[in-house]
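## retry 2 of 3
previous attempt timed out at serialization; input unchanged, resubmitting
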Amino acid sequence: MAERSGTKLAEANKEVEGDFMLIALVTQLNSLATKISEVENQCTSLGRYKPLHERKESRNNEHSRVEDTLQIILLKVTEQDRVINEIKENVEVLNQMVGSHSRSIQLIRSLLSYAVPPLQSNQLLRLPGNAGVDPNKGD
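## retry succeeded, writing output
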């Protein structure tokens, strides 16, 4: 019987110790809550405090603005990419035309050199200079 009462006494002591620890934790929690309230009041009086739910909304709005800005940038980059590709295609067509015209000019020059060998190219093409001006005439 003495053992039972000793065991019950030990259990009761553990319960009491647990209750004291719980009371100490609740006291610390209350103290912490009080300090948080004081800090919130100080920040509110300085105009810097935003409650947690407002901070989340602010972050969501900020996140939304960032996404909107990135979407606008993506659209502009996509449009510029399309314009650059169009310009690139136009440059390729112009390069092909220049090459074709260069070959045509070379062919015409070679044909003209066979048809009219004594004339100089300036006279043939009537380019500025002495072409078309007869030095024997007094004009």
